[in-house]
Amino acid sequence: MRRWSAFLGACMACGLASTVPFAAPAASGAEVAQSSRVTFQYHSNFLLNLHHFLLDIAANERDLAREVCPQEKNGIEIEILRAAASTYRARFAHKSLLFDPELFKIKETLSGDDARRSIGGLDLPPEVADALGTTAPIYERCLWSAQDRSNRDWIAAVQALDATYGAEIQAGIEHDLAHEFTKDPVRVDVVVVTGDRNGAYTSDRPPHAVLPSGRADYQGLAALEMLYHESSHVGVTDAVEAAIDAEITATHRPPDHSLWHAVQFYTVGAVVRNVLKEHGNLDYEPYAEKNGVYRGAWSDDKALIVKYWLPYLRGESDMATAAKAMVDELPPG
Question: What are phi and psi of 211, to 5 degrees?
């Protein structure tokens, strides 16, 4: 796990990527497209969607009678779903989708054949296997068609945006964060809901992002930003994390688990906004600004970013200088 693993349970990556930092001038989108474009492998996986659906109904109040085949007298099936949600709630309440070892293993175990319906032969905890097995027929008959269509529509939309703007966005992020994207394919599992208030989350061994197609804040142009935000968790933030950590260590401050992530949000959002404006004449408000990410302690981080990181993005300083200036204004203890 990386040092920030205690900070946030979603929308992040763990471990170190195999790529190494670099400080080359920004490549053009065409150069990135020809040489080292990040590869996304999209999936709409039945069992993984069912798993996240159960996590969601375990975590949130849902009127299942209206949601699941409401035209039928389905009281028994609703009770089966509620029992499965109760199992999930008892087992996974307050656990991190990313950092809990059991949830990580379940996610990877289910990420096999997208069309698979049976849990037979899968290495799953018995209670989880029972919850998935009893609810799979209900989910397939009543919900899967619409949810799969939501996922596939989201994938088609983000693929089109990526084909148009992705190379320039990748080049900008790599330049500003001074690190290449992973050479390994990034598996992108699209689910309607994740069951977590933070939405998407990413692990890097193997590179694997889970993004929700059913959330309003992940639609349209925001889907493109969050695709690159999530994939940039696979090693791309290493250089800025190292620069911040170096100054924290040098000044004997306690570890900071938010500043680097606020910098990532700001940087990726700024790159996407600028590329969309320059190459598509589109006005775009970055995800963090639109959705109130800079709240609480992050409001202080945002002020430091505007004061010291923004000049770096404008080419007026270097990363080490910007990181030092931001850290030097953090509380000493």
Answer: -125, 145
Q: How far apart are CA 275 and CA 221, in angstroms?
A: 12
179 beta partners? 21
Structure pTM? Answer: 0.88
> What are 166-182's pLDDT values in tens digits?
999 999 999 999 999 99
Which letter does DSSP use for residue 141 in this model?
Answer: I
Q: State how far the Cα of 166 lies from the Cα of 160, in Å rounded to an integer.
A: 9
Number of residues assigned to the chain: 333
Question: Measured between alpha carbons, how far is 239 from 54 in angstroms, rounded to an integer?
Answer: 37
In three-state secondary structure terms, 210 is strand
Q: What is the pLDDT of residue 332?
A: 83
**Burial class (CB within 10 angstroms; exposed 0-12, middle 13-18, buried 19+) of 201:** buried
Strand partners, 40: 186
Burial of 156 (0-12, 13-18, 19+ CB in 10 A): exposed
